[in-house]
Amino acid sequence: MSYSIGVDLGGTNIKTVAVSPEGQVLKFLTSDTADLEGSWPQTIKIQVKSIEEFLGQAPCHIGVASPGLAAKDGRSIAHMQGRLNGLQGFVWTDFLKSARPIFVLNDAHAALLGEVWQGAAKGFSNVMLLTLGTGVGGAVLADGRLLKGHIGRAGHLGHTTVNSDGNADIVGTPGSLEEMIGNYNISERSK
Fold first, then answer.
1. What does the pLDDT look like over 8-38, one tens digit per residue?
2. Residue 87: its pLDDT value, please?
3. Domain spans of the chain?
4. Alpha carbon of 139 to those of 16, 18, 99, 130: distances in Å?
5. What's the pTM?
6. Which residues contact 159 (CB under 8 A, 6 or more apart)?
7. Matching CATH topology for 4-108 and 123-190?
8. CA–CA gap between residue 2 and residue 5 (Å, rounded)
9. CATH of the domain spanning 123-190
10. What pLDDT does 186 receive?
11. What separation in angstroms does the CA of 171 have from each of 21, 80, 104, 121, 168?
12. Which CATH fold topology does 4-108 show?
């Protein structure tokens, strides 16, 4: 049986799924990210191994979706500030000892591509997506192409200024959408 594994490394949760080439979910696992403990790489390794054991064979492909800007070679996250210490430059292919390259995408970019493949954006060639979670992300599909921009930041709607007098967010943007509605600082905002 042919299948692929997708890992969504978030600031709060890790979600790992095995899917058939048609998109049928074969196995789904989730756990806390435990960012402060730094155990997220080991958690992902355990989840991938658990899926391989459950399905009795290695996947054809593994992909990792993560906050931050993906490296141009697609092997790691090139830039991530403020959360998930150790993520920058972390090469998943090496860590998981995979015989095939493990591709890494920004999590909002991956979410949009998933929606285009199997979700609400299926059949559309122009789509905007906003992700709401620990942080706020975004992605844009224009004329059937995912916009990444020169440094991979195109469509990252969470780091756009909505209040130029507001506090700076984790990348230094004053009064960003993420600063206004992200979950990471909800207790501070709501007192």
1. 999 889 999 999 999 999 999 999 998 777 7
2. 93
3. 4-108, 123-190
4. 21, 24, 30, 7
5. 0.89
6. 153, 169, 171, 173, 176, 177, 178
7. yes
8. 11
9. 3.30.420.40
10. 82
11. 37, 8, 20, 29, 8
12. Nucleotidyltransferase; domain 5 (3.30.420)
